[in-house]
Amino acid sequence: MMFKTLMLTTAAFAVSAGMALADGKVIGFSQIGSESGWRAAETTLTKKQAEERGYQLQFSDAQQKQENQIAAMRSFIAQGVDAILIAPVVATGWDAVLQEAKEAEIPVVLLDRMVDSDPSLYLTAVGSNLVHEGEVAGQWLAATVGDKDCRIVELQGTTGSSPAIDRKTGFEKGIAGHDNLKIVQSQTGDFTRSLGKEVMESFLQAENGGKDICALYAHNDDMAVGAIQAIKEAGLKPGQDILVVSIDAVPDIFKAMADGEANATVELTPNMAGPAFDALEAFWANGTEPPKFIQTESKLYTQADDPAGQYEARKDLGY
Amino acid sequence: MNTRTLPLFVTIGIFLAGCLICWVQFPNMASTRVLGNLLTDNAYLGIVAVGMTLVILSGGIDLSVGSVIAFSGVFIAVMLRDTGLHPLPVFALLLGLTTAYGACMGWLIDRLAMPAFIVTLAGMFLARGAAYLLSIDSVPIAHPFYQTLQNAYWLMPGKGRLTLIGVLMLLTFVLGMIVAHRTRFGTSVYALGGGEQTARLMGVRQGRTTVLVYAFSGLMAGLSGIVFSIYTGSGYSLATVGTELTAIAAVVIGGTLLSGGAGYVFGTLVGVLTMGLIQTYIVFDGTLSSWWTKIVIGLLLLVFILLQKGLLHLSETRLAARDA
Fold first, then answer.
1. What sign results for the dihedral spanned by CA atoms B149, B150, B151, B155?
2. Cβ atoms of residues A17 and A56 within 8 Å
3. How far is CA A272 from CA A46, A268, A269, B162, B293, in A?
4. How many CA atoms lie within 13 A of A125 on its CB side?
5. How does strand B161-163 pair with strand B153-155?
6. Which ipTM value was assigned to this complex?
7. Which residues cross the membrane (chain B) (predicted)?
8. Which end of chain B is more exposed for a tag (fewer CB within 10 A), N or C?
9. CB pairs below 8 Å between A and B: how many?
C-alpha cells in the first residue's frame, strides 16, 4: 500500500513536471559557480529574466569545474532543451560538446566569457570587452597619478581564464606610454576575497611594508575588497596611501568607495541574459543570425559618482 | 550471500534503485544519449578509479592521481605544441613517466615505511607544481589526430554516442578485473590488504607488490590523463582538482573496504556510474543546487562505512561465538 502511494505521488510529480515542460521554452544554463558576488548576481538576473519571459530555466552550477560543465551540457542536449546558455570556466576544450549541440540543432549562447572554438559552433557570445575594461581602468589610473612615479601591484584572476588574460593586457595598454607607471608585482588571487587578501599581504611584505606601493589594480572587486582589508591591517590607508582600482562594480566596492577606501571601478553588467534572450527570440522568430559578439557597456565609476546611492541600487540583486 | 559479497549487492541495488527513481521522474532519461553521456563523462574518473581500487585493496591510498591527470594533460598539450611529435609516442612517453612516478612513490612507502597518505600527498603537490611549471595557461590541442579521437564514436540507436573513451573505460575495468581477480599479483594485493602478517605468512613479497600497485595506479592516472585531454581537447593545470577524492568515494561506494583486503573492481564501476547518475539527475531536475551531488555522495559514503563496520562486527561476533 505504502509503495503504491509512493509510486502514485512520484507519477503525479512526473506528470506535473511534464506539464511545466509543455508551455514556454526550456533553457539550460550552465553557470561556472558562485565564486564571486558578481556571478551570484548574474545567476539571479538570469533566473529573473527567464521568469519574466516565461521560460523554464534548467540551472546547473559547475563548482568551477570544466568537467561538470561539459557533463551538464551533454545532459541538456539529451534532455532536448531549446537553447543552452553557458558561462565557460576556461577558454579551451569545448569543440566536441559544442559540435554535439550543433548537430542536435540547439543554439548555444556564451555568457560573459569566450571560448577558442570555431565561432560557427555557437550562436553568439554576450560579454563585455574585457580588454577594454582593463584599458578604462589603466587610463583612469594614468590620468589620476599624472607625472608622479607609481609602482603598481596587480591581483590577477584565475590563471589561464580569459578575463585574467584580457584585463591584464587591457590595463597594460591603458598605462602604455606612461613610463612613470610600472607594474612591479603581479600574481593570481583566483578572483576570491580570501586569496586577494592573502596575496596582498605578501605584496605588502615584499614592497617595504607597502610604503613603496602607489596603486593596486585588481582584476575583480572581490579581490580588491580582500586586499583593502590587508592594507588596513598593515596600518596604511587604502584609497589614499594606496590607490585602489578594480573591475566589476559590485555593491561592496561602492560601500568601500563611499568610505573613501577604494577609488574607482569599471562596471561589468551582470545582465548578460537579457541580450542573450533577445538574440535567441529573434533567432527563433525568423532565423535572424545575431552578430557573433554582443558587447555590453564598460562604465567607469569613481568616488564622485554617488557610491552610496549606487550601493543601495545594487544590494538586492543577489551579489 | 556472505559478508564478502553483500556490499557489492548493496551497491548494485542502490544503482538500480537510482535508475528506477530517475526513470519514474524523468522518463526521457531512459535514452541511449544519457547512457552514452554517463560513460563518456565519467571515463577519466572510471579509469583512475580502477587504479585506486587496487591501491585501496592493498590497504593503501593514492592522493596524487588528480594532479597526475592534470599534469598529463598539460604535458601532452605542451609536447604537441612545442615538438613535432605524433600523439602516440607522446602517449607512450607519458605513460612511462607516470608509471615510474607511481613506482617511485610505492618504493618510498615501502622502504621508508612511511604512511601512503603522506608520500602520495607530497606526490600530489609535486605533480600539480610540475603541471604549473610546464604552463600556467590552458593549452589547446590542435593536432588532427586528436580530432579523429574525439570524433571516434558509434552512434547508438536513439542518437546516443558510444565514444572511444567510454569504451576505453569499460576495457580498463575488464583489465582491472583480470589483474585483481585472476593473477598472482592480484592475490598478493588482497593478501597485503588483509594484513602484513598474513601477507608474510602467505609468502607475498611485500616490497615488490607495493611498488607494483602504485606503479599500476600511476599508469591508470596517466591513461586517465590521456582520456581527459581527449575529452576536453586541451591541457589545463587547474583541471581535476579533488578527483582523487571522488575516485576514493567511487571505490568505497563500490563496496570496497577502505582498510583493504576486500572488494571488487566491478563494484567500483557501479560506484562511478552511481555518482554519474546523481549528477545527471540533478541537471535534469534543473532547480536543485548542484551541491546536492556532494551531499548525496556524502550520505552514500556514510551508509557504506556503517555497513562495513556492521559486517565486521557481525563476523567478529560470529567468530567469537564459534570459539566459545
1. positive
2. no
3. 8, 9, 7, 35, 27
4. 21
5. antiparallel
6. 0.83
7. 6-24, 45-78, 90-109, 116-142, 162-180, 211-231, 237-257, 264-284, 290-307
8. C
9. 118
Q: Where are the domains of chain B?
A: 6-319
**Residue B281 contacts A, CB cutoff 8 Å:** no
**Residue A185, strand partner residues:** A153
Q: Is residue A198 within 8 Å of residue A147, measured between CB atoms?
A: no
Give the span between the Cα atoms of A288 and A229, in whole angstroms. 49
- The phi, psi pair for A85, rounded to 5°, reads -105, 135
Which amino acid belongs to residue A235? G
Task: Report whether B131 contacts B71 (CB < 8 A).
Answer: yes
Over residues A25-69, the pLDDT tens digits come to 999 999 998 877 788 889 999 999 999 999 999 999 998 899 999
Which among B75, B70, B74, B68 has a CA at the least distance from the CA of B90?
A: B75
CB contact under 8 A, A100 and B34: no
> Which residues from A are below 8 Å from B27, CB to CB?
14
Q: Are B199 and B73 in contact (CB under 8 A)?
A: no
Please state the rounded mean pLDDT for residues B278-290: 87
**Residue numbers of B between 233 and 252 with CB closer than 8 Å to A:** 233-234, 236-241
For residue B68, count other CB atoms closer than 10 A to its CB. 36
Of A253, A286, A288, A249, nearest in space to A271 by CA: A249
- What CATH class does A130-269+302-317 carry? alpha beta
Across the interface, which of A11, A65, A96 has its CB nearest the CB of B233? A96
CA distances from B49 to A56, A194, B56, B98, B219 (A): 37, 33, 10, 16, 12
Class of domain B6-319: mainly alpha
Tell whether A292 lies on the interface with B, counting CB pairs under 8 A: no
pTM: 0.79
Q: What is the CATH number of domain A19-127+270-295?
A: 3.40.50.2300
Find the CB nearest A75 among B25, B159, B283.
B283
The answer to whether residue B32 neighbours chain A at the CB level (below 8 Å) is: no
Residue B153 CA to residue A254 CA, distance in Å, equals 52
Q: Is A16 on the interface with B (CB under 8 A)?
A: no
Sort A286 into a burial class: Cβ within 10 Å, 0-12 / 13-18 / 19+.
Answer: exposed
CB-CB under 8 Å, B238 with A75: no
Residue B34 to residue B37: CA distance in whole angstroms: 5
pLDDT of A153 over the 50 cut: yes
Contact A78 B34 (CB under 8 A): yes
Reported as a single tens digit per residue, the pLDDT across B203-252 is: 888 999 999 999 999 999 999 999 999 999 999 999 999 999 999 999 99
Supply angle C-alpha B282, B288, B292, rounded to 5: 70
